[in-house]
Write a structure and sequence with these properties.
The chain is an all-alpha fold and 133 residues long. Helices cover 59% and strands 0% of the residues.
Length: 133
C-alpha cells in the first residue's frame, strides 16, 4: 500500500508525519496511533478494517460513514458496547483521553467492527492503548 502511494516519504508528507515515523512502523519498531491510522486510511482510501487487521474490503469508506447507517438496534448495540468497553479499558489502564481523541477512537473502532457486528477484544485493547500514544 505504501509503495502504491509513492513510498514512505510520500505517505509521510500526506499524513503530516515524519518519514522516520513511517519507516519505524514498517520495521515494527512502533505503531501508528489512532489519529495516524485515520489519516492513512483517508490518504490511501483504505478501510480501517483492512489496514489494521487485513480483513474486509481494502477500499475505504466514504466520508461520514463512521456514524450508524440507519440507527438499527444492532448498530446502536454495537456502538454502546464499544463505548462501554473503551471506558473499561481506559479505566483499567488508568488512561485519560481528550474528548477529541476519545471520539476519534470510538469512530475508528466502530468502523473496524461494524461489518461483522462483533468486537475483537484484543484489537480493541490494542487500539485503546495506541490512542494515548
Amino acid at each position: 500500500m505504501i509503495d502504491a502511494h509513492g513510498g514512505a516519504s510520500s505517505l509521510a508528507r500526506v499524513i503530516a508525519r515524519s518519514e522516520g515515523a513511517v519507516r519505524k512502523w514498517l520495521r515494527a519498531e512502533s505503531e501508528p496511533n489512532v489519529t495516524d491510522l485515520r489519516a492513512i486510511c483517508e490518504a490511501t482510501s483504505t478501510s480501517i478494517a483492512w489496514l489494521v487487521g487485513g480483513s474486509g474490503e481494502r477500499s475505504g469508506v466514504t466520508a461520514g460513514a463512521g456514524a450508524p447507517r440507519d440507527g438499527t438496534p444492532a448498530e446502536c448495540a454495537l456502538l454502546e458496547t464499544i463505548l462501554e468497553r473503551v471506558d473499561a479499558e481506559l479505566a483499567k489502564a488508568h488512561l485519560v483521553l481528550a474528548s477529541t481523541q476519545r471520539s476519534a477512537l470510538i469512530v475508528t473502532l466502530y468502523q473496524l467492527f461494524r461489518e461483522k457486528q462483533s468486537i475483537d477484544p484484543d484489537a480493541l485493547t490494542r487500539l485503546v492503548r495506541l490512542a494515548q500514544a
